[in-house]
Amino acid sequence: MNIHDVHQGVQKFKRRRRIGRGPGSGHGKTSGRGHKGQKSRAGYSRQVSFQGGTMPMVRRVPKRGFNNRWASVVAIVNVEDLQTAFKSGETVTPETIREKKLVPPHFEVLKVLGNGELKKKLAVSAHRFSKSAEEKIQQAGGSTTVLPGKKPVIKNKMGHSKTQQ
């Protein structure tokens, strides 16, 4: 074999198939659709999940519980976690909490809950606070700042949902 034979017959771009242009094209008569059957007809389309008549994977796999894909991912942190992780006078933000690994790395909303004791003065910024957490932070001499973010969905008596203002 010679080096000039390596690329012999290799084309950079594949020519498109000119379908239904007579017998000389190599794709004449049935235009690559074969004879008869559902796939040979005009307007044929099938579902992406179709698996040749067997039970589709989508229906075979068991489904359990409820999955709300619109719900925001809420990370929770307790007041006692802030007590152990931060020094007095520090500012607490979602970024600093993420750096200290008190919450999972991926979340959209941070909520501070009031479980435990807080004796340090902290300036806490989060998307949501429980009433007890807000009281404990303010009793310790700290401050709370509510960050803008996804609003929680509240259901009214009629069962209709609306976002909290």
Features of the shown structure:
165 residues; alpha/beta; Ribosomal Protein L15, Chain: K, domain 2; three-stranded parallel β-sheet
How would you describe what is shown here?
The protein has four helices and eight strands. The strands form three sheets. It has a three-stranded parallel sheet. The protein is an alpha/beta fold. It has a domain at 74-149: Ribosomal Protein L15, Chain: K, domain 2, CATH 3.100.10.
Characterize this entry briefly.
The protein is built from four helices and eight strands, in the order αβαβαβββαβββ. It has 165 residues and is an alpha/beta fold. The longest helix is centred in the last third of the chain and has 9 residues.
Largest beta sheet: strand ordering: 1-3-5
Count the helices. How many? 4
Q: Low-confidence parts lasting 5 or more residues at pLDDT below 50?
A: none
Q: Give the rounded overall mean pLDDT.
A: 89
What's the CATH topology label of the domain at 74-149?
Ribosomal Protein L15, Chain: K, domain 2
State the share of residues found in helices, binned by percent.
Answer: 10-25%
Instruction: Tell the overall outline.
Output: elongated
CATH architecture level-2 label of the domain at 74-149: Ribosomal Protein L15, Chain: K, domain 2
Largest sheet: 3 strands, parallel
* Head-to-tail CA distance between termini: 77 Å
Q: Count of DSSP E strands?
A: 8
CATH class of the domain at 74-149: Alpha Beta
Per DSSP, what share of the residues sits in E-state strands of 2 or more residues? Answer: 15-25%
Class derived from helix and strand content: alpha/beta
- Radius of gyration, whole Å: 31 Å
User: What is the N-to-C order of secondary-structure elements (H for helix, E for strand)?
Assistant: HEHEHEEEHEEE
